[in-house]
Amino acid sequence: MNPYSVIITHYEREGNLKNTLKGLNRQSVLPTEVIVIEMGQGLHLENNFEFPLKIVNFERFWEFMPLAAARNLGAEHSSTEHLVFLDVDCIPSDNFCQKIVAASASRNALAMGSPRYILHNNPMGFCVKELRENSIFHPSRPEVNGIVKEECYELFWSLCFSLSRELFERIGGFDDRFEGYGAEDTDFALEVKKAGIPFYLTDAEVYHQQHPIYVPPLNHLEPIIKNSNLFFAKWGYWPMVDCLQDFSDMGYIQWQGNKDTPITLKRKPTTQDIRERLIKNAPYR
């Protein structure tokens, strides 16, 4: 199997990160290295893993999580020719890395794994069998058996994926003009499509831990506006339309749907507005 690096971006979910690292420590083929890009106020981790762990502080920390730039920074710090990107909330199944690296390397392609969503909020101590029994697939995603070539690149989510360094560099990595939450992963997938790189869905499973979310994500209102306008300017259609419709209906933005008029902010949510949209824990939304 090809040597590979795992890249994780982290912001204020240290408990989830520790669970994810434990999952990486029991991989059937261990990573050559794991790189954590720290976007917050620092980590307190004991390096008792069977792989080298690098923690890189992201010096360009902004108010909004710079996910695209942080992932690029992780790739820059990696030392192998094959990359696995893993969401901080995703505990990998024991053979996740072996399966997804093999799928992407053998096909010279972008490969995405299959996220399952944990139904309980405390996965500490769960064995893989328990994780699988206490998790479900997202209802809006296809269930995958084996490795399936996918022509709809919008099905790419950046929770768990793999590709070679050569392909990552060919498309220029993530567009770091996308700052904060929203649309950077769909933009990445469309750049992959534009470059003629095939995309595969695989049954390499990860188990997504619960965390607080806001529905709709008013806590990310301004970056979503900025990123949506950038996405439309690049690709000619709007991303995250359900979210944008919610913001419009609630009177926070001016958005004209299928027209090319940029989204504008009408009013900012108050702290109370945002607090009322908090769901402390849920498998997915």
TrEMBL record:
Which InterPro entries has this protein been placed in? Galactosyl_T_C, Glyco_trans_2-like, Nucleotide-diphossugar_trans
What is the official name of this protein in its record? Glycosyltransferase, GT2 family
Report domain Glycosyltransferase 2-like positions. 5-120
Q: Per its UniProt entry, which superkingdom is the organism in? A: Bacteria
Q: Where are the transmembrane segments?
A: none
Family matches, as Pfam families: Glyco_transf_7C, Glycos_transf_2
MF term (GO), any = glycosyltransferase activity
Instruction: Domain (Galactosyltransferase C-terminal): give its ranges.
Output: 153-204
Species annotation: Pricia antarctica
